[in-house]
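Per your request, structure below.
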């Protein structure tokens, strides 16, 4: 009997209230979780039949297509990149900017769409080019976008969403198979995930907060089988990862099965691992690791969230987790420990959902279907969407 069968058998016999296990206290207060999230009724109700864009949404929400790979962004002359991946939103005057990576070899990079105050598209343009398989990344408190290369010895590039400066390489943040980044302004560190089957969870401590050119890289350390409990951090001896990869340099490092999305808010860094369909919660205040979601801890056939990938959150504490595959959903995990589908894309089963990010006012959610209906690995049929509605804030 494998690990998942054992865990599911245990959970199936446990009593839950309305099918959901509540988190202990506030998710954001650094308290240990009472138990990983369980399926239950979502805050927005059931999904309705698909709209004209092929999206199933709750009542009160609407969608529009912002861009399609290989086609000009509406109202501009800019051709949208293939394989749209990680993304984030930034304030820009009376409007905002959505940036999106391109997960393709050699040309990779990132693009941006600028919106006017009324939500209309004002411009689209390139902010990074000539890089390699730019997967996810993260926003900084000083308004830049960290675009990460998902290749061995991959690099981090700091970019300016408004295009006012050329992107700059930040190799002191470590050379490894980068996925996502999340800034912790309280401890003045940047957390980093690694997309390898035996990847690690890192943090970069800059010498000066706001300047990522110099600093040190550390790796999270804990027993291999630990899913909850205290952790420590140790320095990486050689951040360049050659000839020994960074993930193999510290014997006490804890390894994670395919690090993906990363999101920080008020003392907690949430990150996901796709190999075991987990959402982890790193309590930065108490230096403790917990599980916020694990599909093996859900009764058989009841897991709403599989293919766990990119993640974002809201000021009110809701987490939005996108699926790579699964049934092409973005699921919401509430602070009370309930996980449920928020939206579903139909007829795109060979794609993945990437780059979820909220506009600064919190009423618009942006994301992409990386390969669209065709599922072409080159990402030539990628689609970037916007969903508008009464999001909880």
């Amino acid at each position: 009997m494998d690990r998942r069968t054992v865990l599911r058998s245990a959970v199936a016999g446990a009593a839950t209230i309305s099918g959901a296990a509540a988190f202990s206290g506030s998710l954001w207060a650094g308290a240990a979780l009472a138990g990983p999230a369980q399926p239950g009724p979502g805050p927005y109700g059931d999904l309705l039949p698909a709209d004209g864009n092929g999206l199933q949404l709750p009542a009160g929400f609407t969608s529009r297509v912002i861009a399609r790979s290989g086609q000009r962004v509406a109202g501009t002359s800019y051709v949208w990149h293939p394989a749209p991946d990680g993304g984030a939103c930034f304030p820009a005057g009376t409007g905002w900017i959505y940036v999106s990576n391109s997960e393709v070899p050699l040309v990779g990079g990132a693009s941006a769409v600028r919106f006017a105050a009324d939500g209309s598209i004002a411009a689209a343009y390139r902010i990074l080019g000539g890089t390699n398989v730019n997967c996810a990344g993260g926003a900084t408190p000083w308004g830049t976008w960290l675009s990460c290369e998902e290749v061995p010895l991959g690099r981090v590039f700091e970019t300016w969403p408004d295009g006012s400066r050329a992107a700059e390489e930040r190799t002191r943040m470590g050379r490894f198979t980068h996925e996502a980044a999340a800034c912790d302004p309280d401890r003045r560190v940047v957390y980093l995930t690694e997309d390898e089957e035996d990847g690690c969870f890192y943090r970069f401590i800059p010498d000066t907060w706001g300047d990522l050119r110099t600093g040190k890289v550390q790796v999270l350390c804990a027993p291999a089988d630990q899913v909850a409990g205290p952790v420590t951090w140790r320095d990486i001896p050689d951040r360049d990862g050659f000839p020994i990869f960074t993930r193999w340099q510290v014997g006490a490092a804890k390894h994670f099965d395919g690090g993906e999305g990363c999101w920080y808010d008020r003392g907690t860094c949430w990150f996901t691992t796709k190999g075991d369909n987990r959402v982890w919660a790193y309590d930065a205040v108490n230096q403790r690791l917990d599980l916020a979601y694990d599909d093996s801890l859900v009764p058989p056939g009841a897991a709403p969230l599989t293919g766990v990938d990119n993640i974002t959150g809201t000021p009110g504490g809701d987490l939005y987790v996108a699926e790579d595959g699964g049934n092409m959903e973005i699921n919401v995990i509430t602070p009370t420990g309930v996980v449920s589908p928020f939206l579903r894309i139909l007829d795109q089963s060979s794609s993945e959902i990437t780059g979820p990010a909220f506009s600064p006012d919190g009423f618009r959610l942006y994301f992409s279907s990386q390969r669209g209906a065709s599922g072409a690995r080159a990402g030539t049929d990628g689609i970037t969407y916007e969903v508008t509605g009464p999001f909880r804030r």
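Confidence is low (pLDDT under 50) at residues 1-32.

Regards,
D.
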